[in-house]
Amino acid sequence: MAGDNQKSSLRKDIDENLKRVYEDALKEEVPDRFKLLLEQLKAKESKK
Fold first, then answer.
1. pLDDT category, 46, cuts 50, 70, 90?
2. What residue stretches are annotated with the Anti-sigma factor NepR domain (predicted)?
3. pLDDT tens readout for residues 6-30
4. How many CB atoms neighbour CB 17 within 10 A?
5. Distance of CA 13 to the CA centre of its chain
6. Neighbours of 39 (CB within 10 A)
7. Cα–Cα dist 6/25, whole Å
8. Helices in the chain by DSSP H: which ranges?
9. Three-state SS at 29
């Protein structure tokens, strides 16, 4: 039973850390280079 509690606790810690990393990634600004590439792609698509 103690092993199950340790696994459960470990999974909870992993879940919390993954959520934290994901939320931090969502808050990051998109690099200007990517914005430029997206604009170029949109312009190319609109010409078709």
1. very high
2. 11-45
3. 889 999 999 999 999 999 999 999 9
4. 10
5. 18
6. 10
7. 28
8. 2-27, 32-47
9. coil
Measured between alpha carbons, how far is 24 from 18 in angstroms, rounded to an integer?
A: 10
Residue numbers of the domain that contains 19: 2-47
Residue pointed to by tokens 């280079």: 33
The total domain count for the chain is: 1
End-to-end C-alpha distance for the chain, whole angstroms: 63
Give the three-class secondary structure for 1.
Answer: coil
Distance CA 11, CA 8 (A): 5
Give the whole-angstrom CA distance, residue 20 versus residue 5. 22
The pLDDT assigned to 21 comes to 97
